[in-house]
Structures are given as structure tokens and as C-alpha cells.
Amino acid sequence: MQATAYREMAAAKLNLALHVTGRRADGYHLLDSLVTFADYGDTITVESAAQDAFTLVGRFAPLLANDNPSGNLVLKARDLLRAACLGAGQAAPPVAITLDKTLPVAAGIGGGSADAAATLRVLLKLWDVTLAPHTLQDLALSLGADVPMCLAGVPLRAQGIGEDLTPLATMPHFGLVIGNPLKSVSTPAIFKALTRRDNPPIGALPAGHDPAEWIATLKSLRNDLQPVAESLCPEIGDLCQMIARTGPLMVRMSGSGASCFGLYANRAAALAAEKTLLSEKPDWYFQAGQTISASSVTKPTAQFLAET
């Protein structure tokens, strides 16, 4: 009997803007962020099996190969979802999971959070189970602050510590290049070095789909982590300057870095920029593509967002 297999993309996440607006008593920072996703990323493949198995492949798999498997968010997502399914009286039999790791590790573009979210989505299909949206939301948040937004996988505004999600119904798509100097930066170190944690939140957003209006708004915003990240990793500033020379609509660092991105009028412009950037730094990571648009919201995702 042939095993049943499903595949799900773990799309790269972009913080188009990230404002640090406060800090809770437990140490978690409060954020106000505009988030979208690329049309490329890691890939999670799952299939029914006689016993659980996990395989790493892809360009950046060696960076994870020596990590303790128990700390991998893919396996944590599998185990937490299985427990939730069994607790609800639904079956969650053994699975073989393959992670094709094509995105840089610890790069500020979702990474493990996107992989965990994709694992949840694909296992729900394989196991053919349904959980209440609030149960899935709580499960995702227990895996990390970025997992709920990666689970939604659509343009959105994330507030609180990342759990308060509002879909951005009018965000258009853009050509995209993500770059990374393949230098690691410490997220805790960046937050620790912040000199201000009570920055103003994001204001009014465009009501329509006009790309020019969105770009103007995005350029008026910021990533509050970028100045600190650049001081700890000067290559981030160099990378932004390189991307800026290719004629993007805007350039910014994503998350806590070291990944930076350029938005372009279309995919063709992004592909041309990727070629130029790779010729300058062939040993760095560059990937062209396109951001997703608000029209990518599916019915299940819309329901999930509505109940978070």
C-alpha cells in the first residue's frame, strides 16, 4: 500500500515594518509590525509511516544537523499537535517528515517558526483532523511568538508579542529580493541593547490597493531593531546599500536580521537585481521572487484570523 504524502511551503516571513512599543513585566517585548510573506521558502513533506522519522535536506540543512533534535520546532510542532489531536479523540499516527532547508538559519525571516507553522498545516491535512481555531492559536503561540503569524501566512499586522493578528485586506504584491550575508546575529543581544522600548506604534494604513501609496507608507515607518543590529553586524548596513543600488522601491532589514530585503515594481526587476547582487557577492544568500497579496487569504485562514 502506497504511503500518503503531503507537501507544504514554509514561506519566508518579512517584517515590512517593526516598531518596539513596550515591554511586559515578564520580559517579552511588545511589537507593532506589518508582515507579509515571500512566494518561496523551506518545504515540509510528510507521509504516513510505520514509525516517526525526521530527515534534513537542502542548502542550509548542515547548520541544523548537529542541533539537538528535541529542540527542533518541526518536531515540537508534531508532538504538540499530536497531543492535541489525541486529547480531542482524533488519531495522529506515525509520520515521516522531511525538511528541505533552503532559507538561511536564524536570519529574521521566519525560519524555524515558518517550518513549525507549515508542519502544523500539513499534518492537519495528513491526519485529516480539525481543531478549534483558538486551540490551534494557543498551540502555535506556545511554539513561539512568530508561529501564529506564519500559520496564518497572509499579509497582516501583528501586535502584542505577535499573537494579536489583523489581516491587511488591501496589501498588494511586489517584486522581492531577500539577501543575507550569512552572518549570525543574536536576537536577545539586539533587544538587550535597545535604548528605547516605548516607540510610537504604526499609524493609519492605506485603505486601497495602490502600490505607490503602500510604499510611501512603508517608507515612513521603520524597523526599530535595525540600528542596533547594524552596530553588531556591519554587513547588514553593507547589504542594504548593495540592494539600494539596484533601484528598489524600498530597502529594510527584516526582523532582527541579518536578512534584508528590497521591494520592486515587479518580479522581473527583482530577478535583475538578484543577478547583480550575486555577481557582487556570490558567497552571500540572495533570492528573488514576489511577496504575496491580500487575495491569498483562504477561507480556513480567514476563519483562523477572525477567531484569534
Descriptive overview:
The chain has 308 residues and is an alpha+beta fold. The chain folds into two domains: 5-168 and 296-306, Ribosomal Protein S5, domain 2, CATH 3.30.230; 175-290, Alpha-Beta Plaits (2-Layer Sandwich), CATH 3.30.70.890. Helices cover 35% and strands 26% of the residues. The protein is built from eleven helices and ten strands. It has helices at 62-65, 73-87, 112-127, 133-143, 147-152, 187-193, 211-220, 226-232, 235-244, 267-280, 299-306; strands spanning 5-23, 29-48, 53-57, 95-100, 156-160, 164-167, 175-180, 250-253, 260-264, 285-290. The strands form two sheets. Strands 1, 2, 3, 4, 5 and 6 form a six-stranded mixed β-sheet that branches. A hairpin with a 5-residue loop joins strand 1 (5-23) and strand 2 (29-48). Helix 2 packs parallel to helix 3 (112-127) and helix 2 (73-87) packs antiparallel against helix 4 (133-143).
Furnish the topology, listing elements before pairings.
Layout: E1 5-23, E2 29-48, E3 53-57, H1 62-65, H2 73-87, E4 95-100, H3 112-127, H4 133-143, H5 147-152, E5 156-160, E6 164-167, E7 175-180, H6 187-193, H7 211-220, H8 226-232, H9 235-244, E8 250-253, E9 260-264, H10 267-280, E10 285-290, H11 299-306
Parallel strand pairs: 3-4
Antiparallel strand pairs: 1-2, 2-4, 2-5, 5-6, 7-9, 7-10, 8-9
Helix pairs in contact: 2-3, 2-4
Binding site for ATP: 104-114
Keywords: ATP-binding, Isoprene biosynthesis, Kinase, Nucleotide-binding, Transferase
Domain GHMP kinase N-terminal: 72-153
